Amino acid sequence: MGLAAGLVVFLKPTWAFIAALLALCSAITDIRKNWTKRKFKGKAIGAGILVLSCLFMLTLSYLRIDAPPIADDYTIKDLRSAPPECDQTYELLGRLTDVDFKVHSMSPIGLSSQEISPLEEMHDLCKKRDFGAIMLVLQGNSDVIVTFWEDAKNGREVLAKLNEFPEIADMAEPSLIMQKVPWLSSMRNLAFLYRIYSCLHSIQGNHRTAVDTLLEYDSFVRKLSLNARSVILNLVCIACSDISIDTANFIINNPETPQESLLFIRQHLISDSPERTSPRNMLIFEYLTWKKRFLKTSNDPRDRYRAITPLKLNSSLRLSRNFLDELIATDEGRTQTVELKVWPALYPNLPVEIGHDGELPRYYEIYNPLGARIIDIYAPAINNLVRIRMEFKIRSDLLRIVLDKRLGREVSLKARAYGDEYIVDIEDRRIFSPGQDGKADTKDDIELPMNPDVLGW
Question: pTM for this one?
């Protein structure tokens, strides 16, 4: 019976548990029968070994038990998707797919490989806090900027067509490999171009053109971020929206910008829909990606025949769901009411939470080492993205404060995170949040430059 338990432990944990339990009962019965016999000593030793073997097999089978499957688990249908009439937008985005400049001399947006480098340099110069220095860069390169704008006709036409749709579709499927954004360079270069072109028209007095240019690119990014699925695409959308914030901030701090343009920016740029700022789509998509990885590992023959440490598929999925659902609930300002139990019914319901760096309680790592290892890889990236999204929301708050101050409205410095209030530093000409460490003047400060003379601070 002990041999049977040893063999079946490699197959199904439930049968292994039953076999080991029967073997243990058989061994104990054998000891009782031979208790008064002369030859008991030898049999007792054998029975003792059998008892220890059965206990070992019982422990193995106990460690192999998984939690029950999740009822009504997430599927691809739970993702927010663009309406069917917007499906062609995904093909339109394909026209911006990046190329290898070793093979092609022209980018998909229409800029040559020789034009990309100076475009990036001008954008980097526009990151300066001194608005006067930015104006000098733009004025000194005005003809070059106009040439870049004209040459990028292909990219601008694609953006114009995409903006004709109410939303932009993302049809990415969960994948085992890191998903790239095939139009990453095109989106980035267009963001750089729209920024410097908009700022150039602002200082030249073409205020309506400046605002229209800003809002055209921002509208594209907003529509794309509504249905963005992968972590990478969400990061790209946040980065591009950050550039729009910097562009709007430059226009707001330009003393020549008329009230009409400021009000237009406030009407179209400041408001954020809950769908756009919610991480729900991304987190569900990430869960489906984790699930694909867990399923692949659990179906690996090498995992199936592990004696002690096979992947606990259902427990891993339940723990992942709890982690991601909690992030969704927190973002939506509610408390997660239902938490899935990550342990089998035979186990005590010990608390298991994923730490900021993906760390898990030691007892769970012993129970599910493979699942814990996979979660340890993915969880920190999700926590980092949640932090980046919060920083973006804070910069949006700062832009709203700067704009309202410029419009002469009453402003509130109440902060949404990392402190009670945002800080106005007139001497350093910026408004900022101290960041995650809660300390001012450190590298994680989240800031927006400003011109106190223009804003009246």
Answer: 0.84
